Inverse folding.
């Protein structure tokens, strides 16, 4: 079978690499789903595998059934003899590349946790630094079994000793920037989704008040219920007498906020040293933005900017909100100086 005819499959050995020795010492790749029993006894179609997943794991959420059934199905029916396998080991930090040499075998006697196995002949054990950041990112999939598509030729070339093209210097590797941007976007999506789901209604007002506290403002939050269009009053001094006084309206809806709502908030700004601030988990209509642009003492913060403020001031948030929004510091490659200039 030529390299162009065979698929490239990625495998993971568990979150902590617990199947690492099984893979490398027993010359195989394997997946879990131990409660499903012998996969070869299940009907050779995805619907049969979906039924088998629900029977073996009745607590599986409906949305997770297709993915849960798809991986065992592919392992049995789509992974072919001669296909290439790529295993990025967490323990030795190497990428192990081999070839499928055996048909499916149900071997709980060898590994109770990873009973579904295919024999593999390992050909190469390559340092991670030999691959582009994009290739490493693709094989960093969260799934136990996945098909390598975008960078398959990189691994084929490494196995055969050929080169697809001269390796790009890391400073000029465009995939580095793409990976960094993707990680940042995933984080922003997580923050926004969590705010939408966990802080619906008045709890978002409390959160915005705490966010303002991290910026050095003292806040007074209106109780739940009718508030006259003002959810928070923010100020710098302890008693709240000295300007500027900021009147804040908070909307937890993801719908677009129109000009009437923004104008209503501005109607409460009675003094020239008072300011209006409208915060929403949605966005603002063009008319609302045009109205605010014409007012020096009115500011609009949509979902995108709110998330940026959360990330900027995350370390100063109290433990309650860090529990709702669990994040950890991750270093990602920064743009090169040339990119900053552009």
């Amino acid at each position: 079978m030529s390299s162009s005819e065979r698929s490239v499959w990625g495998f993971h050995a568990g979150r902590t690499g617990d199947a690492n020795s099984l893979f490398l010492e027993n010359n195989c790749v394997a997946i879990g789903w131990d409660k499903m029993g012998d996969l070869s006894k299940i009907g050779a179609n995805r619907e049969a595998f979906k039924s088998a997943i629900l029977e073996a794991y009745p607590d599986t959420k409906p949305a997770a059934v297709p993915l849960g059934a798809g991986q065992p199905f592919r392992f049995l029916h789509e992974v072919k003899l001669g296909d290439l396998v790529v295993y990025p080991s967490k323990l030795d930090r190497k990428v192990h590349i081999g070839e499928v040499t055996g048909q499916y075998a149900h071997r709980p006697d060898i590994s109770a946790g990873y009973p579904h196995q295919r024999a593999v002949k390992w050909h190469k054990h390559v340092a991670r630094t030999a691959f582009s950041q994009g290739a490493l990112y693709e094989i960093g999939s969260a799934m136990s079994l996945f098909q390598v598509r975008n960078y398959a030729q990189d691994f084929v070339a490494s196995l055969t000793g050929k080169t697809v093209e001269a390796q790009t210097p890391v400073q000029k590797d465009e995939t580095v920037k793409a990976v960094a941007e993707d990680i940042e976007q995933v984080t922003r999506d997580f923050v926004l989704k969590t705010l939408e789901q966990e802080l619906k209604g008045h709890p978002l007002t409390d959160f915005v008040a705490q966010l303002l506290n991290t910026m050095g403002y003292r806040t007074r939050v209106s109780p739940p219920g009718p508030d006259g269009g003002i959810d928070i009053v923010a100020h710098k001094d302890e008693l709240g007498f000295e300007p500027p006084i900021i009147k804040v309206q908070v909307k937890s809806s993801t719908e677009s906020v129109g000009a009437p709502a923004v104008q209503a908030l501005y109607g409460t700004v009675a003094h020239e040293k008072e300011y209006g601030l409208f915060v929403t988990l949605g966005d603002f209509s063009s008319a609302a933005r045009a109205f605010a642009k014409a007012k020096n003492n009115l500011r609009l913060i949509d979902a995108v900017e709110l998330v940026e403020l959360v990330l900027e001031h995350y370390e100063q948030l109290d433990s309650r909100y860090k529990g709702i929004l669990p994040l950890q510091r991750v270093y990602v490659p920064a743009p090169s100086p040339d990119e900053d200039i552009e």
Summary: The domain at 192-324 is CATH 3.40.1350.10 (Trna Endonuclease; Chain: A, domain 1). Residues 174-198 form the longest helix (25 residues).
